[in-house]
Amino acid sequence: MRLLPGHLDLAAQRALRDRIHALLAEAPLYRPTMPGGDKTMSVRMSNCGPLGWLTDRAGYRYADRHPETGRPWPAIPDALIALRDTVTGLPYRPEACLINRYDAGSRLGLHVDQDEGDFSAPVVSVSLGDQALFRVGGATRKHPTRSLRLSSGDVVVLEGESRLWFHGVDRIYPGTSTLLEGGGRLNLTLRRVTTAPSG
Ligand code: SIN
Ligand code: FE2
User: Helices 10-26 and 78-88, interaxial angle, to 10°?
Assistant: First the structure.
């Protein structure tokens, strides 16, 4: 796993925040349901890109439409495509960008990103807004974990072996950033979903 602290400066964070807010007007945040349908998540979600990650009563999957509006997801902002190219050195396009919105009490349980058809492509995630306590382990749930605080502008790359490591967000730290009006945190996760083009 690679952590790139402060990869985005304040101007880049503000520009990206504004793009994401514009895009959320088209594809509003919604509160996802866990498979089975008994529990909702404390994180609200949306997506951009040809495909978006969803969870609902029926399970986890990728879909090309917003579950509530029925409209295709908006395009991934160019700045995010460029960022991914820069940090991975890989030119092919990510297909999905999951947008997670954390409020003061939100958390995300330990999980592996494994609903994609290709694990060779790295997962790139960008943090905006309040700091988060990010926990990362290894290939099994039993593996020891370590915790790190992610700040606004930080980028995490899960690649190689770490592509399939367990990770999650234990809490956020309200009041640690003024980037987002009303506080909270946005995380943008870029993924390749179908097979990555070779060469
Ligand atoms: C995720 O694993 O989907 C998001 C991680 C984060 O919010 O930093
Ligand atoms: Fe994840």
Answer: 130
CATH number at residue 175: 2.60.120.590
| Cα 99 to middle of ligand 1, angstroms | 9
Task: List the residue whose alpha carbon is closest to atom 2 of ligand 1.
Answer: 168
Let me know if residue 197 belongs to a domain. no
Q: What is the pLDDT of residues 111-125, one digit of tens each?
A: 999 999 989 999 999
Rounded CA separation 16/19 (Å): 5
As beta bridge partners, residue 106 has: none
Q: How many domains, the chain?
A: 1
Ligand 1 center to residue 73 CA distance, Å?
A: 19
- What would the pLDDT profile of 1-46 be if each residue is shown by its tens digit? 999 999 999 999 999 999 999 999 999 999 999 999 889 999 999 9
Cα gap 72→66, rounded to integer Å: 6
